[in-house]
Prior knowledge:
It is a single chain. 21% of the residues lie in helices and 31% in strands. The protein is an alpha+beta fold. It has a single domain (43-148), classed as Beta Barrel (Lipocalin), CATH 2.40.128.270. A hairpin with a 7-residue loop joins strand 5 (81-87) and strand 6 (95-96). The protein is globular. 24% of the residues are buried. InterPro entries: DUF306_Meta_HslJ, HslJ-like_sf, Hsp_HslJ-like. Keywords: Signal, Stress response.
Amino acid sequence: MRFPFLFLALLAAGCQTRPAAETAATPPPLARTAPDAPLRETRWVLRQLAGQPITVPADTREPYLTLRADGTAEGNGSCNRFRGSFFSENPSELKFSPLMSTRMACPALETENAFTRALGQSNTYRISGDTLRVLDATGAAVARLEAVYLR
């Protein structure tokens, strides 16, 4: 008759739970989130225009944008450098003056022109981690850029 007693003892042991105090003292795992990249003095590399991923021909550069602390906007559309001014006087505001550019012919000229047009349509922005979304006056994303840190 030992078998039923042993069975009941094992069954009771399997049903025990941790005391409430021990469960409450165990902290939940921490969610790690990266801080948002700064708008200024960050190299923002273009990844999408109007929701479409961009492709860069092998003999051209990655399009990028850098917004300087003095209000200067500069970058490269893929072949041509551009420069102008930007305004961000209110939270989330981002507007550009007309951008001046060199005008060399290149295989990525269509992407380059679309990039500078998107910056010209800019009204606001949103940064989440290493992602900058440039939004037009309706709130639609005209460009998505990614912070790239140089080593």
